[in-house]
Amino acid sequence: MDTATQERTARMFEHMKPDLEATAHSLGVAQRVIGSLTELSIVAAKENARLAAELQVTALEALHDSQSAALRWHPAWSEALTDPLRLYQRGFSEAIESSQRALTLMGASARLVVQAADRLQTAATETGRRIRETLNGGAENRH
Hints:
Elements (H helix, E strand, L loop, with lengths): L1 H72 L2 H4 L4 H59 L1
Helix pairs in contact: 1-3
């Protein structure tokens, strides 16, 4: 009786073996795809943190520039009554310089965003390539 049960069990496992192998292979493919997507998520999180830090530095530079401009204006108010034309000229000049600095900082911010997007696109393209290779290799191994 034990021998008959063992033979039936062995036959059952032989019939199940191809299904078990296919399931194990599918799990391996799924694990590699999930691993690639996890790596992409990590790259995206790092890129987001890097971009936020770089934009904060740019914002701090803009704040510093605005504070410097305010400090430069403080002594000018005492001269306002004696030479209003000079005050107007100084204000106009300061407005142009401030606009130029603001445009420079905006350009720097835009460059940072574009660079971050490029790095993320490169990572996404590489992840897509790895996933395609995994899936194509998985399809070839099953046939």
